[in-house]
UniProtKB/TrEMBL annotation:
This is Electron transfer flavoprotein subunit beta. Residues 23-209 form the Electron transfer flavoprotein alpha/beta-subunit N-terminal domain. Keywords: Electron transport, Transport. One of its GO terms (molecular function) is electron transfer activity.
């Protein structure tokens, strides 16, 4: 079994977000980057499925050379080898296309990724990969088992859960519960230095969309505390100021 796991290089959750070039570009100065937490969940489940010599796990990242420390962390967690598509990931469409092109040439049994990246929260890449490869795509899964031929997948839906079985190649985006994120140990960290990291050039594709501007949320205003016995005043403010009723 061969599993491809897509990983994103994202800012640490404590990062203070700012923009440059007239608010058209994320400011990376002084930012600590990490493996996208949802992608870590996908990677952990892939490693579990391949334990005991049942298969191999390849991680793939679309990014420039600065993303290699993040890729090495994924190797330290337990991936067997890694691929970096040498290009800035300009959007989900571009990223999914690059991953799909690599997958076409390397015959993976399944492709896993996180439900979304914590920087853009788009939840688009998995479905786009499935469309490019013409294989089933299952979004935001909570459980994944594989018996060698058929994958049994659970998803949460309104009021319950949905169980899906898939035979053949597929792509799935993993959410919390699919696996516990693994912490690399010293042996993993040392072995990551020598595991293969292949760099491939991006395949040309038309740019269908472009970010024109980023905006940060307005700062929070002052809090008004209304005594519990003054409900009439509270209702008036909700009408006149907050305009929520």
């Amino acid at each position: 079994m061969k599993i491809l796991v897509c990983i994103s290089n994202v800012p640490d959750t404590t990062t203070k977000i700012t923009f440059t070039n007239d608010n058209t570009q994320f400011n990376t100065a002084g930012v600590q980057f990490i493996v996208n937490p949802y992608d870590e969940i996908a990677l952990s489940r892939a490693i579990e499925l391949c334990e005991g010599g049942k298969g191999t796990v390849t991680v793939i990242n679309v990014g420039e050379v600065a993303t290699e420390p993040t890729i090495r962390k994924a190797l330290a967690i337990g991936a067997d080898d890694a691929v970096r598509v040498n290009a800035a990931p300009r959007d989900a469409y571009f990223t999914a296309f690059q991953i799909a092109e690599y997958a076409k040439a390397n015959d993976f049994d399944m492709i896993l990724c996180g439900r979304e990246s914590i920087d853009y929260n788009g939840s688009q890449v998995a479905a786009m990969i499935g469309e490019f490869l013409d294989i089933p795509s299952i979004s935001i899964i909570k459980k994944l088992d594989f018996d060698g031929t058929t994958a049994t997948i659970e998803r949460e839906i309104e009021g319950g859960k949905e169980v899906v079985s898939v035979t053949g190649k597929f792509v799935a985006s993993c959410a919390e519960g699919t696996a516990e994120a693994k912490i690399p140990n010293m042996r993993g960290i040392m072995s990551a230095r020598t595991k293969p990291l292949t760099v491939v050039e991006a395949v040309a594709i038309d740019e269908l969309g472009k970010v024109t501007k980023f905006e940060t949320p307005a700062p929070r205003g002052a809090v008004k505390l209304i005594p519990a016995e003054n409900a009439e005043n509270l209702i008036g403010l909700l009408h006149s100021e907050a305009k929520v009723i």
